[in-house]
Backbone:
DNA sequence: GTCTATAGGTGGATAGAC
DNA sequence: GTCTATCCACCTATAGAC
């Protein structure tokens, strides 16, 4: 709430690290990159985040907190299910507009090379997303504002997969316009 | 055609490099990894592929040739459009079963860190896939074996995105079963 | 909490013998 | 075509002064 004009060093490190993970992947950047960008020595970065694994884990957990906060805000608005799904896809579009990949989508690509705590964070993020989506879908089906075959859980998995894939592909091939075209196709199936 | 019992060194290097890209990403492996696995010194690898960029570019172009060959085989079978789409998704499922990501899907994640020739290869691969898919979709619509709204090109982009995303997510969260569940959902929309 | 300095290892890449 | 040996830049991480 209280807006600090200058974030503290740890947060500024996390900001840069988060962006670098989302654009270059966890193995595509180093402490030296963060050091150069912030004008802070590498040793100072290690003071705040002793190892890269700890830095990565912290990036994930801060991101999950914020993302779940955004979902809570969507819920708090009290809109109907289709509006909630639109708002959800807008979260992804906003990330893509910054030329970034979904944090956990990127880390899913790097998955095999990640330390265990980061892997766990990625899986938790996907699970939380699917739980939230399934809830929205189920409520939409009850109120007849959404239509879909099969379980809400399977439809949630389909939604998450399609959004992640649309981001992944669009970042190199087609851009925001293609992402939004795919999103419209996905949502239309549920809402028409 | 002629089955060599032992592939030549260059091909064996490409085999390992391809698998490492698909599992760890382009920035997640080194010449040392290939060296250890093949029992060949790093300097020898550089004799066959002078730089990592050349190695990566060669992996992509060999993969594109093989993949387009697989699509040509599907076409040669002369099946109807739904059968072709099923065969196409099976190509992806087979990769996932080997616990690998689609080569170009993985490289799409690494995109920002790739040398230009590799970027071009990734984009070409996606473009070729969408062209092929759009052709199958258009022919299916003509013969009323497939139904979809909008253009064949947009539907092809949706298909590709969903398959890439389903692979990306399923590799860390849900496995082959979830991938196939998503695929069934995607194809059912077109075939029901 | 930030710095300088450095350790110890690995990255991609090359030279030159065989 | 494969090897040994080596270069140098960069990596993560630590020690210790300020």
Residues:
């Amino acid at each position: 709430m209280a807006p600090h004009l200058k974030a503290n060093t740890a947060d500024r490190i996390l900001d840069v690290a988060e962006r670098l993970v989302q654009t270059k992947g966890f193995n595509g950047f180093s402490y030296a990159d963060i050091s150069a960008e912030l004008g802070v020595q590498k040793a100072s970065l290690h003071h705040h985040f002793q190892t890269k694994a700890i830095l990565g884990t912290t990036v994930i957990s801060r991101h999950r907190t914020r993302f779940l906060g955004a979902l809570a805000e969507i819920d708090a608005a009290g809109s109907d299910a289709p509006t909630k799904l639109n708002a959800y896809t807008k979260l992804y579009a906003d990330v893509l507009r910054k030329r970034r990949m979904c944090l956990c989508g990127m880390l899913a690509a790097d998955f095999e090379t990640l330390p265990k705590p980061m892997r766990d964070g990625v899986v938790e993020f996907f699970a939380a997303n699917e739980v939230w989506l399934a809830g929205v879908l189920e409520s939409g089906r009850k109120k007849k504002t959404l239509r879909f075959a099969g379980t809400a859980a399977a439809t949630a998995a389909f939604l998450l997969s399609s959004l992640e894939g649309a981001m992944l592909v669009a970042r190199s091939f087609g851009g925001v316009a293609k992402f939004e075209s795919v999103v419209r196709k996905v949502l239309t199936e549920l809402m028409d």
Summary: Residues 116-142 of chain B form the longest helix (27 residues). Chain B has one domain: 57-191.
